[in-house]
C-alpha cells in the first residue's frame, strides 16, 4: 500500500529522480523526446511562479483544454503546487459547452493546446472571470500567452528551491484539487469536486497490487480530462515508471510498435476495435481465417489456465501461440505484461476472446465521483465477467432495487455549485447512489448488471439490460456500435452503426458497391448479413429480450460525431433523438400501452 497524503507527494516523487527520464513527447518530426525528472521540476516551478505572479493562489481555478501532452501534466502539477484547483475539459467538446463550464467553474486561467481550442474560447461567449489564456502550440494568438515563452526560465529553475518545496508541502488532504465535469450521457455536465484526499486514498490502495515499477512504460492516450487516466498517470509517476504522451488514438498503433509499453490501460471500445481488426484481417484469407478460429478454440480449451496467470504447456497451445497469439501481442508492442480495462463494461465476449488469445484483461469499475476505482480485478484475484473485488477503502451496500451505493474516503462530497443535484445523488446518510444495478458473488467479486437509468421496461413490465446485449452485437467485426431501444414498447429493437472499414471490405467481396454509405446500408446483402448477426445474438436471449427489428444506420458513431462520450460510452438519449424517425418506424404498427 502506498502512503501518499496529497497529490503533491506525486510531484515530489516524480521530480526527485535526477536525470532519469520520466516522460516522453513526440516532436513534429515523429521523434520521441525525453523529459527528465529535473526537467519536469524546472518546468513545474517556472509555471507555478508565473501563476503566482498573476495573483493565482489557493482555491483559484485553472482550466485545461488540451489533448494528452507534457504541458498538460506541467500545468496540473503547477496548479496543485500553488494550492490551485484545476478544471480539465475534454478537447472534443464544443465551444458552447466549454463556455458553460468555464463560467460555472469561475476559472481565472485557461491553458489550451492549439489554434482549434483557442478558437473555442473565442466562440464560448462572455467569460467574465477569465483573466489569462495560455496556448501550448507556437503561433500568434491575440490576448494570449505562449506556453513556450513561459518555459524560458525552466532550465534555470531546475535546482531545488527551498521556498517552492515548502509551498508544495502546504497542501492538505481536505483541500479541493480538481473539478472534473462528467461528460454525461444525458443532461448538462456536473462538476465533480475531488479533494487531494479523495484521489490519494484511491491511489494508495488500487495500484500497488498490479506490481507497477520504475522499469515500466505506459502510453498515456486516454484523455487526461478523465479521472481514470489521471489516476493511472499519478500512480505510475509515483513509482518512477515512464509515460509517453499520445494526443490522438490514431497515433497509438505506431507508438505501441516503437515504444513497446509494458502497461496498457484502455476503454473497452479500443479492445473491441483491436479484436475486430484481427478478425477483419484474417477474413481476407480463408486459410488465415481458419487458423484464427482454430487458435481461439484451442485457447478457449485452456482459458482457465490463462485466467490464473499460467502459461499453458500443451503442444497445440504453443503452436497457436507461435502462429496467432504472439501476433496479437505484437499489436500492443509485444511487451505488455499488464492489460487493464475501465470506463465502461468490457463485456464477457470481448474478455473471453482475449483470454482465449492468451491475454487476460483486468477489468475495473468506478465513477468520477469515486476518484475513480470502486473495484478491480488483480493478478492474484481475477474473475472474468466481473469488475473485481471492492477496494478496501470503499464500503458497498445495495438499495431495495439493486442499485449499488458506496461510501468511503475516495467518494466526492458533491457537485460544484449544484446543491440540488448533490442532494439527489446521495442518500440521507451520505452514501453515493452509483446509478448502477449490481451484485456481489460468494467470492466477493462485484458484477454490474446495467445502468439503472438505461434499463428498458417493456409495456409488459419486463426489464431488459441493454449493455450486455449490445456488447454481444459489437463482438462481430461488422458492428461498430449498437443501441437497443424499446422502453414502454411491447418488444425491443436495435439500431446498428457499422464498422465501415470492415463492412466495405466484406461488401467488395460480395460485389456490392461501397462508395455511398446511404446506399450501402440499404443493400439487400448488407441488410441480410446484419440480420443474421442479430439473429445469432437473439438465439442466446430470453424471448422478451430478443430484438424483433433492426436498422443499419449510415453513420459510424463517434466522439466527434456526438453520439459517444469522450470515454466511448453510448450517449443513449442523443442516439434516440437523432434516430427518432427510425425508432418510430420500428413501432408504427404497434398499439403502444404505457407501462
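Sequence proposed for the structure above (595 residues):
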Amino acid at each position: 500500500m502506498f502512503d501518499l497524503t496529497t497529490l503533491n507527494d506525486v510531484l515530489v516523487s516524480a521530480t526527485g529522480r535526477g536525470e532519469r527520464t520520466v516522460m516522453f513527447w513526440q516532436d513534429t518530426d515523429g521523434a520521441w523526446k525525453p523529459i527528465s525528472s529535473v526537467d519536469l521540476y524546472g518546468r513545474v516551478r517556472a509555471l507555478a511562479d508565473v501563476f503566482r505572479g498573476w495573483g493565482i493562489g489557493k482555491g483559484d481555478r485553472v482550466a485545461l483544454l488540451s489533448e494528452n501532452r507534457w504541458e498538460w501534466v506541467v500545468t496540473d502539477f503547477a496548479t496543485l503546487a500553488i494550492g490551485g484547483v484545476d478544471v480539465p475539459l475534454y478537447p472534443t467538446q464544443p465551444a458552447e459547452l466549454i463556455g458553460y463550464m468555464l463560467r460555472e467553474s469561475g476559472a481565472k486561467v485557461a491553458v489550451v493546446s492549439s489554434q482549434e481550442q483557442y478558437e473555442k474560447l473565442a466562440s464560448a461567449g462572455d467569460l467574465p472571470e477569465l483573466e489569462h489564456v495560455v496556448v501550448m502550440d507556437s503561433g500568434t494568438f491575440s490576448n494570449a500567452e505562449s506556453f513556450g515563452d513561459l518555459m524560458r526560465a525552466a532550465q534555470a529553475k531546475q535546482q531545488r528551491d527551498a521556498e517552492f518545496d515548502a509551498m508544495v508541502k502546504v497542501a492538505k488532504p481536505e483541500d479541493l484539487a480538481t473539478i472534473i465535469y462528467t461528460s454525461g450521457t444525458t443532461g448538462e455536465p456536473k462538476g465533480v469536486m475531488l479533494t487531494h484526499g479523495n484521489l490519494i486514498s484511491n491511489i494508495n490502495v488500487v495500484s500497488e497490487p498490479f506490481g507497477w515499477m520504475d522499469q515500466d512504460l505506459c502510453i498515456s492516450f486516454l484523455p487526461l480530462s478523465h479521472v481514470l487516466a489521471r489516476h493511472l498517470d499519478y500512480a505510475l509517476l509515483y513509482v518512477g515508471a515512464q509515460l509517453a504522451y499520445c494526443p490522438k488514438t490514431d497515433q497509438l498503433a505506431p507508438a505501441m510498435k516503437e515504444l513497446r509499453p509494458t502497461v496498457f490501460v484502455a476503454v473497452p471500445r479500443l479492445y473491441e476495435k483491436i479484436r475486430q481488426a484481427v478478425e477483419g484481417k484474417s477474413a481476407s484469407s480463408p486459410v488465415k481465417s481458419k487458423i484464427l478460429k482454430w487458435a481461439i478454440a484451442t485457447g478457449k480449451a485452456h482459458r482457465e489456465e490463462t485466467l490464473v496467470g499460467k502459461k499453458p504447456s500443451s503442444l497445440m497451445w504453443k503452436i497457436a501461440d507461435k502462429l496467432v497469439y504472439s501476433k496479437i501481442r505484437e499489436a500492443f508492442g509485444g511487451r505488455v505484461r499488464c492489460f487493464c480495462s475501465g470506463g465502461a463494461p468490457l463485456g464477457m465476449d470481448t474478455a473471453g476472446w482475449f483470454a482465449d488469445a492468451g491475454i487476460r484483461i483486468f477489468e475495473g469499475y468506478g465513477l468520477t465521483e469515486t476518484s475513480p476505482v470502486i473495484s478491480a480485478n488483480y493478478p492474484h484475484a481475477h474473475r472474468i465477467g466481473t469488475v473485481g473485488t471492492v477496494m478496501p477503502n470503499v464500503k458497498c451496500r445495495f438499495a431495495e432495487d439493486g442499485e449499488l451505493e458506496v461510501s468511503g474516503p475516495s467518494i466526492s462530497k458533491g457537485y460544484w455549485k449544484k446543491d440540488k443535484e448533490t442532494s439527489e445523488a446521495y442518500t440521507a446518510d451520505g452514501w453515493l447512489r452509483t446509478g448502477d444495478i449490481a451484485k456481489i458473488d460468494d467470492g466477493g467479486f462485484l458484477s454490474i448488471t446495467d445502468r439503472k437509468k438505461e434499463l428498458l421496461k417493456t409495456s409488459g413490465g419486463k426489464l431488459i439490460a441493454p449493455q450486455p446485449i449490445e456488447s454481444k452485437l459489437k463482438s462481430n467485426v461488422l458492428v461498430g456500435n449498437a443501441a437497443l431501444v424499446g422502453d414502454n414498447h411491447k418488444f425491443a429493437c436495435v439500431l446498428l452503426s457499422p464498422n465501415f472499414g470492415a463492412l466495405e471490405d466484406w461488401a467488395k467481396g460480395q460485389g456490392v458497391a461501397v462508395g455511398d454509405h446511404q446506399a450501402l446500408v440499404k443493400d439487400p446483402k448488407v441488410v441480410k448479413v446484419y440480420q443474421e448477426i442479430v439473429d445469432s445474438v437473439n438465439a442466446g436471449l430470453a424471448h422478451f429480450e430478443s430484438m424483433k427489428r433492426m436498422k443499419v444506420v449510415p453513420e459510424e458513431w463517434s466522439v466527434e460525431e456526438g453520439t459517444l462520450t469522450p470515454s466511448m460510452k453510448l450517449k443513449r438519449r442523443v442516439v434516440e433523438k437523432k434516430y427518432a424517425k427510425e425508432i418510430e418506424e420500428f413501432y408504427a404498427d404497434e398499439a403502444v400501452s404505457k407501462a
